[in-house]
Design goal:
14% of the residues lie in helices and 33% in strands. By secondary structure, it is an alpha+beta fold. It has a single domain (7-111), classed as SH3 type barrels. The longest helix is centred in the last third of the chain and has 12 residues, at 100-111. The chain starts with 6 loop residues before the first strand and ends in a 6-residue tail after the last helix.
Length: 117
Amino acid sequence: MKLNKYDVVLVDFNPKKGHSQSGVRPVVLIQSNLFNKKSSTLIFVPLTSVMKDIFPSEFLIEPSKCNGLKSNSRFLGSQLMTVDRNWAIERIGHLEKKYHALVNEALAISLDWDDDF
């Protein structure tokens, strides 16, 4: 399956271990397209439809025809993961450009790229 940065993909997280996400759920692929072509692994951030307090490394994504989401989803910027490409079930959409800067901002906070924390 051909995948690109900012694609929304269904991933199978079973079996659950510890505090990680579980079940089949959507994620946003954050890996560079340079690696997406050949890599056997994928780097992504999971989404959840559970609406709790939004942390600084999170933001809300509204469902659309473009992104393929069925409900409001929270981008869990502090839970980025690398998994085997075989975990990916199908590409359901692509995150709209208006969210790209929010992805980068959430990751910058989560990874403390500017050494602010």
